[in-house]
Every structure is written in C-alpha cells, then in structure tokens.
Design goal:
By secondary structure, this protein is mainly beta. The protein has a domain of 53 residues. The chain is 9% helix and 44% strand. It comes from Steroidobacter flavus.
Length: 989
C-alpha cells in the first residue's frame, strides 16, 4: 500500500526510516543525535516501501518532495530528546533552545494580577515575543488561550508528540500571519500502535514544587489496517513555589533575594552617577504595620501590638520632618538596610502552581489506498494559581489625628506639633495577600482529508481540513480590597461611644471601621466590607474557525530534477467575547456573565464608582470583537543544476496573498535556495522574505479601561480641562511588515568524518509599522505638533455635546531591528572505546548582535537591548548535550549557559567623581553589570524489564541562583527554583 501522507499535520510513522532522515538532512536540518543514533538504514533498502514513507513535509515549507533542500534553518527535537529531558511539560524542553528568547511559562507573569497571562506556556523566537511566533499542532493553527491569539502549549497532547520543528526565520508566505520570528510545529504520531505511558514525580532541593505526572497513550489499527485509532490521557499536578514571608526571605529558605533596586538621584552634573544600584533597598514610605512618612511626626512606626516606636532607617538615615517626607542620608525613596521587615516583594510567587488534564484522540479511515479521512479531538484544561505580592501596600494615606484607633501618645504629639492629620504608609500585613486563579479550557476539533491522486499521469498530494476551536479562560481574583471602601473604613470616628466609620453614607452601606495602626486583624464584618467574597473576575470565550486546502506535487521533470509545486487556500475567523464583574467594569443594567443580576453579587454602593475601576488591582472590562482572513499561496522548488562538477542547487520561492477583514489585502513572499557544493559535505543556503503580523484581537478590540484625568493640559487652548481617558483597541491598525534575511553554511557528514555536522547561519530581521501604544499626553501633543497626524482622531478636548475624552490606543509607528548568528554542531561515536552503544554530543548557540526598538518620535531614542539581561535577549545563549545510549542504558549531561549582560546599553558606568554629565540618551550609573548563568542537568534511564524503563533527572545540579537584577528577578532568563530531582517510569508495550 503506497502511503504518501506527510508527517506535518497528517500521518507519521512509529520509526524514522532512512528516507526520512535523508529528506531532513537534505533540508539542512541538524537532527538531535539521539534520534540519528537509533536509525540504521536496512541492508535491503526496502524500508521505504514497507513503511510507506516516500515523502515528508518539513515545517519550513509547504513543498513535499524527497529531494527538496530547505533554505531556512530549522532545528528538530525528536521524541527521544523530549523523553531524555524528562520535563513534565515539553514546553520547557523546547524553550531551552537558544533561538527561543522570552518564552513564557509557569515562572513568568507570576507577579501579575491583571495580565491574564499567568501560567500561559507560549514560545517567543528571536525575542520578538509570543505574538510574532506561530505555534502549530500538526501544521495546523490552534485556538488562542489569550486575547493576543497566543496558544497555550500545555493544552497540547504531549505523549504522542513525535518531533518538534523549530523554524528560525520568517514563514508567513508558507503559513500566514504571526510567523515573523518563525514557526514552532508539534508533529504527532498518528500511526502509533500499542500502549505506552509515563509516571513521574519531582521535588526541588527546598522541598517544594512537588510534581506528579501520569500519561498513557494507546493506538491500534482495524479493518485490515484501514482504520487507525490513537488516543492519550494526561494528568499533571505541580504545586508551585512561593510566596515567602514579608522582608527579604523567600519560600523554602532560598537566600538569593537581596531587594536590589535602581534608584534615580535626579542629579545630573555633580560628577557622581545619576543612577545607583543598591542591595537591601528599604522603601521609606511604608512599613509592615504602618509608618508616619512626612511632617513633624515622620519616623514613628507601629509594631504588631499597635505600640509606636522610632523606625530604624537604613543608611543611618534620619527623618527630615518636612512635607515631602525625605530622609537625610538616604537616596530618593530608598535607604539601604535598616528595618526591612515590611518589604513586600518577597511575597511574589516564584512558580505558579499548575494542574493540567488533557485528552486527545484521532480516528482515521483510509477509504482508498492513498486517501484518508480523519477526525481529531483535543479536550484539555489547565488551572494555575499565583500570589503577585505580599499585602496591598498603601504608601500615601492621609490619616486624622482624631482617629480613635491612634494611640493617645501619638494624638498628644499631634497636638504638640499643631497638626490635625499626617501622611501614612502601610504594607497592610493585617490583610490576606491577593490570590489569582486562572482556568483555561480548550475544545478543539479537526475534520480532515489527505491523500494522493493521479492527474494526467502525475502524482499529486492533497491535504484539507476544517478546524473548530473554542477556548474559555476564567480569571478569579480573591482577597483583594475595594480601595474606596478601604479609605472609608480606615477613616474612623467615635459616635455615641462607639468607633464607627466617619462617613455617614459609608456607614449606611455597611462600612465597618478597621485599625491600621499595628497588626490588629479586622473583624469578619470589616473584611466583608473592604474585601467581598466575590472578587474581580473575567470570563473570556475565544472561537477559531479554520478551513485549509493544500495541494503539492512534481508535475514536470526538468534538466536538474523535478519541479515541485505547492499551492492552497485558507479561510480563518477569530473572535472573542469577555465579560467582567461590575465593580471593575462598571455597574450595568444587564445580568452578569453567570446570569445573576449584578446587584446580587455586586450591589450598588454610592461610595464606589459606577464606571468601574474600584478594585486595588484586577479591574477587568467587557469587550468583544472578530476578524476574518482569506488567503491563497503558491510555492515552488526549482532545481537549478545537478552535476558532479558544480554540485546541486535549488531555488525555492513562495508568495501569499492575504485579505484581512479589518485592514485589507497584503502580499508576502520569500525567495531562497541551497547549493550542495562540489566540496564533500558543504552546503550553502540563503533566504530573504517579506513577512507580516496582523493586529490581534486585543490590539483591535481591547476591552476599554476608563480613568479620569482631572487637570489635563489642552495645548491647543493652553488651559487645563477635565478629560476621560479610554484605553481601547484600534480597529484601524494595519499589519506589521517584516523583512527576514538569512544565509549560512552547513558542513555535514563528510567522508572523512561521517558522523559530524556543523552549521553557522546569520539572520537579520527588520520590522516596520510595529504596533505600539502611546500615553494620553503623547497622543495629544504629537497631534498638536503635527508629528503623528493619525492621533488627531483619538481625542476631543472641546466637546460641547459630552465629556472631553482621549482614546489611548495602539498605532503603527515603531520599528524593530535584530540580527545575530545561530551555530549548531553535532558528532556521534558508535562504540566509543569499545562500549556497546553510541556517544553523541550536540551544541546549539545563538548570538544576538543587536535588538533595536525605535519609536521614531521626537524626544525618543533607539533602544538596543541586545545583552540586556533584565530582558529576553542576552548576547549569547548556549545549549550543549552529551549522551550515551545503549540497548538498556542511557545517560545524558546537559549544559545551559547565558552570557553576562548589563542593565541597559544606554548607561555609562562610572565611579563618583569621574562621571560625565548625565543625559536622557546616555545616563550615568554606578553598576551596569548583570551576571550570566550556567546550569548543569544530569539524567539517565535503564530498561529494567522489556518495554519498561526507569529514569532519573536532576535539573540545575549546582543549585545555581538567579542573577540579581533590579526587578526582583528575571524568570525569562534565569531559573528561580534551584535544584530539582525527578524520578519516573516509562513503559512502551
């Protein structure tokens, strides 16, 4: 039976054959050697026919031809490599590739309350963020798990993944929008037969993040091999890490946190650095149980029992007693050391907890020898939880001296000083810390057909599918205050001998006073008033509909080989609808998302704003929107020459026309080629392309956020006005346009060193019309000055028929330019030193030469973040793997290295007395260094019974601490957990 089913989105075999390896090698791919080592071409050469694999579709192109040479560098991670790395989520293994920078996972976004990205596993190639990386499952799009359109990889079926292709370069002409940085494609094994499973447990060196993973998959064929059924079920529970107590201690006793901060002295020309990097920074505008922060009583703090005492400032600082609240001997806003017990940053979750349940199934029926119809179903749920920070610090409160909770001794001091109120700050340690819970549920169905047909004597392949995907994202925030109710509750007075809220309206609506001078825990009634049980929530539904039909074949034999063609059409519709609670969104007449009236869970209260924004954080908004896309593409691979004297060369070109319902028609294209030179094993490759990213649902139709600007300067009339700021989407946005260029050299499998491969590739990406946002001031001023005319339609400050407003939205005006090198090398030693197995080494590295973002607007400067280790783009990122594989025993050592970096390339580092004048473009700093990191991972496995393997893995063997940065930590680059131990058992029957 001749099967011409490609493995990208359709069929894939249980084992890699020699033909498949030849195809991948021809594409210039450096396969993981753990895969190569297990494949030996059969002596009779019949594996091709027996396994029915004559052709393969590699993710970098739509062309399906065994002789095709892909010009775009692509890294491939095999199932064996995924297994050897022993991660509970294969996202982690893929994200370790050097070309992936800025990917998000359970260690990122843990400091966030409102982003909706907590626990979201998404890839970012070239540091261009996840919205510019296209992630596919079997070559097909996946419904987004966030309004940015980014899918959650942890919702993918993982045990049946056969390989992961990472295309390091633009692929919009082949796959459409979002493939600016590249493509990550998960290829499943649709021909698996048997039963296999995996059970794993893990824990950190600090006895936390306890993890359990249980996976099982099964597959079989029926009706003489025409009916194929595969399925998998997975459960993954990870407890997470954090939070730590107030101060500088972290969860589990981790000791690397030093409260490093970047402090601006606001002095530019005294010979000393404008910016100072300090450890053990002590904010002096709040403490754990309260601090008077300005005026004649500045420096009086309160202990847990409510007793006043003189606060211990760091840096030997003394309170100035002035209205500004400065502290003598300290930097602006911070001292060094002293009483750090009230610092809140240590309460940030280091890794979100995660519970994942995944069910996947595929049924395929071959109704003819070369034709199959199939249905896939993916039902998955991921729940995460994080704590953004300890407490809810309020540093700028005004408290009355007459407050009955204030100790009499302090009231007497007020009288002596002749004041009736004072400025006050507290961490609010008397309140429980905010908790954020996310729940993502994905329902994805694909109905497709694939096969081959003969047209006028030529073999053609077709692949069509319809996909329907729905994702529900629920975000619930618990233990968070209503700020205006809190303000009423802390303003206490005595009435008829009882302490009550001072405001009569607040009292009539349930206000119960609380004491914030010390650690007295509020009553249940007070809690219910300021922190109602039903907190902020957001309910989002995203729908995706995709229809795609593709055809490929080799209709003509030319002088140097067959001409390969691929063409197709695609239709896609994306839509979303989000509903939020009344206190965040605004009290509306209609029912809430769950059908109950708003006045049931969120009763009207004259203390609160009907327009919303009442919560301390998590003020979600209602919104909705949709867009559709129609596309057609053509791709061809033209053999140029093929001879022993000059070698073999191919030209690959593609063009795609895309019509967006929101922004019209756009063309993208690519041109590239490879040349297998006459030099044994030497191949050259190059490609250039025009790529595009369309604005996503969030950018086009963002749920509005409204705030009041009471004294906004109208530059047209030079007067201050009351204005309403509306943060909204911009339906007029157009696609970002990118130019990708890469060229490189591959030296693979020469006769003198048959198991060696190395490649070096240069890349350059330039993106224009980058979608970026402006402030309200920028929007008005750039219109007034004629700098950015498109902003003039975004506001009205002289509106006789309604309120003045400014719509803060995104525009197409910025640019991004990045360039660098990718290096990959591998070598395999069969039976090294007579050992009954194979030793392999593999190394991958990415060097980022530049990553420049430029708004191109007056008063702004291009910002190069290459080598800035507070972001996502270090100078160097390296992954090295050494492994030994025999019939029963496997061992692996892995090194991950990130180069040293800086806080910012704009800074001039200098010592006091030697600094030049600090400027906006080139400010001075005393320490611009950020350490890199080196992580060592060790693992191994042993087949204890036929088909049953026990394994272990130790990540971060050296228990390397993350580098100290000025933003708590940078989990996008550094590991915050420490050493992790993993044990498990796999079976394959």
């Amino acid at each position: 039976m001749s099967k011409k089913f490609c493995t990208d989105g359709t069929h894939s075999a249980m084992k890699m054959t020699s033909v498949r390896l030849q195809v991948l090698a021809a594409c210039g791919l450096l396969l993981p050697l753990s895969l190569q080592a297990q494949v030996t071409p059969p002596a009779d050469g019949k594996a091709d026919q027996e396994n029915g694999l004559e052709e393969i579709l590699v993710t970098g192109t739509r062309i399906m031809s065994s002789g095709y040479n892909a010009p775009t560098p692509t890294s491939v991670i095999s199932a064996e490599q995924l297994t050897a790395n022993a991660q509970p989520n294969i996202f982690t293994t893929v994200a370790q590739l050097p070309s992936l920078q800025g990917s998000t996972g359970t260690q990122t976004n843990t400091f966030s309350t409102s982003s909706g990205a907590q626990g979201l596993s998404s890839f970012s190639l070239r540091g261009l963020t996840a919205i510019r990386t296209l992630t596919l499952l079997d070559g097909q799009r996946v419904v987004g798990a966030n309004v940015t359109g980014v899918p959650d990889v942890s919702l993918f079926p993982q045990l049946l993944i056969e390989r992961v292709d990472v295309v390091n370069g633009g692929a919009s002409s082949s796959y459409g929008s979002d493939a600016v940085g590249g493509v990550v494609n998960f290829v499943t094994n649709t021909r698996f037969e048997g039963v296999k499973g995996n059970v794993q447990g893990a824990v950190t060196n600090y006895d936390d993040d306890e993890t359990i993973v249980a996976q099982v998959a099964a597959g079989s064929s029926f009706l003489d091999g025409r009916l194929h059924v595969v399925g998998s079920v997975e459960y993954h529970d990870e407890k997470g890490v954090g939070p730590g107590p107030y101060g500088v201690g972290l969860a589990g006793g981790r000791d690397w946190f030093t409260q490093r901060s970047l402090v601006n002295r606001n002095v530019l020309n005294d010979g000393s650095p404008q910016y100072n990097v300090i450890d053990y920074a002590q904010p002096y505008n709040y403490t754990k149980y309260g601090l008077i922060t300005a005026g004649p009583l500045q420096g009086i703090a309160f202990d847990q029992a409510g007793n006043p005492f003189q606060f211990q400032y760091g840096s030997n600082g003394t309170p100035s007693g002035n209205a500004a609240g400065t502290v003598n001997g300290c930097l602006p806003g911070f001292c060094v050391g002293g009483d750090l017990s009230g610092n809140v940053d240590s309460g940030r979750t280091l890794q979100s907890s995660l519970e994942r349940i995944n069910g996947y199934g595929r049924v395929g029926f071959e109704f003819a020898d070369d034709d199959e119809i199939y249905l896939t179903t993916n039902l998955a749920q991921v729940q995460t939880h994080n704590q953004p920070i300890n407490g809810m610090n309020r540093p700028n409160l005004t408290m009355q001296c007459s407050n009955p909770f204030l100790p009499a001794s302090v009231q007497a001091m007020c009288a002596t000083a002749g004041i009736t109120s004072f400025q006050y700050g507290t961490s609010n340690a008397i309140l429980p810390s905010t908790q954020v819970y996310t729940d993502r549920r994905q329902y994805r169905f694909v109905l497709g057909a694939i096969g081959g047909l003969n047209v006028l004597g030529d073999e053609w392949n077709y692949n069509g599918y319809y996909e329907h995907g729905v994702n529900f994202t629920d975000i619930d925030v618990k233990s968070i205050m209503l700020s205006r109710r809190f303000n009423q509750a802390i303003d206490a007075t005595t009435l008829n001998g009882q302490i009550v809220c001072a405001d009569a309206t607040a009292r009539a609506n349930g206000c119960v006073p609380i004491n914030i001078f010390g650690g007295t825990v509020p009553s249940a009634q007070a809690f219910n008033y300021i922190m109602p049980a039903r907190g902020p929530y957001q309910r989002t539904r995203q729908n995706q509909e995709v229809f795609s039909f593709n055809v490929s074949g080799t209709p003509v034999d030319l002088w140097a080989g067959p001409l390969a063609l691929a063409f197709g059409v695609e239709y896609r519709k994306e839509e979303y609808r989000v509903r939020a609670d009344a206190y965040g969104n605004g009290i509306l007449p209609q029912a809430g998302i769950d059908g109950t009236p708003y006045n049931s869970n969120y009763p009207a209260d004259p203390v609160l704003l009907d327009t919303g924004n009442n919560w301390y954080a998590g003020n979600y908004k209602n919104g909705e929107g949709d867009y559709s896309v129609k596309e057609a593409y053509l791709e061809f691979d033209l053999p140029l020459f093929d001879s022993e004297s000059v070698g073999r060369a191919n030209l690959n070109a593609a063009s795609r026309v895309t019509d967006y319902s929101t922004s019209g028609t756009i063309d993208v294209w690519k041109v590239g080629g490879t040349w297998d030179t006459p030099v044994d094993g030497l191949r050259l490759r190059a490609t250039t392309s025009r790529d595009a990213r369309a604005p996503n649902l969030s950018e086009l139709f963002a749920a509005p956020v409204t705030t009041t600007l009471p004294n906004f300067l109208d530059p047209f009339r030079n007067i201050n006005v009351l204005a309403i700021q509306n943060a909204i989407g911009n339906p007029a946005l157009t696609p970002e346009i990118a130019r990708n260029t890469s060229f490189g050299v591959v030296y693979s499998e020469p006769e003198w060193l048959p198991n060696f491969s190395v490649s070096v590739d240069y890349y350059k990406i330039e993106i224009e019309d980058v979608i970026s946002s402006l402030t309200a001031n920028d929007i008005v001023n750039y219109c007034f000055r004629g700098v950015l005319p498109q902003t003039c339609n975004s506001f009205n400050l002289n509106n006789p028929n309604g309120p003045n407003f400014i719509n803060v939205q995104s525009f197409n005006f910025a640019s991004i330019k990045t360039s660098g090198f990718d290096i990959e090398a591998s070598y395999r030693w069969p039976q090294l030193f007579g050992l009954p197995g194979t030793v392999t080494v593999r190394g991958l590295a990415t060097h980022i030469r530049e990553y420049v973002t430029d708004n191109g607007l007056p008063g702004t400067f291009p910002n190069d973040t290459a080598g800035v280790n507070t972001g996502n783009t270090p100078d160097w990122k390296v992954l090295a793997i050494q492994s030994y594989d025999s019939d029963k025993l496997s061992l692996q050592i892995q090194e991950r290295w990130i180069s040293d970096g800086v806080l910012g390339n704009q800074y001039i580092e200098c010592r006091p007395g030697t600094c030049p004048v600090s400027t906006v473009a080139r400010p001075t700093i005393d320490n611009n260094h950020v350490d890199g990191a080196f992580y060592l991972d060790v693992g191994g496995s042993y087949e204890v019974l036929p088909g049953t393997t026990a394994y272990f893995k130790v990540d971060n063997v050296l228990d390397e601490d993350p580098a100290r940065v000025t933003t708590f930590s940078n989990p996008a680059l550094y590991d915050a957990l420490g050493r992790v131990y993993r044990l498990g058992v796999r079976f394959d029957l």
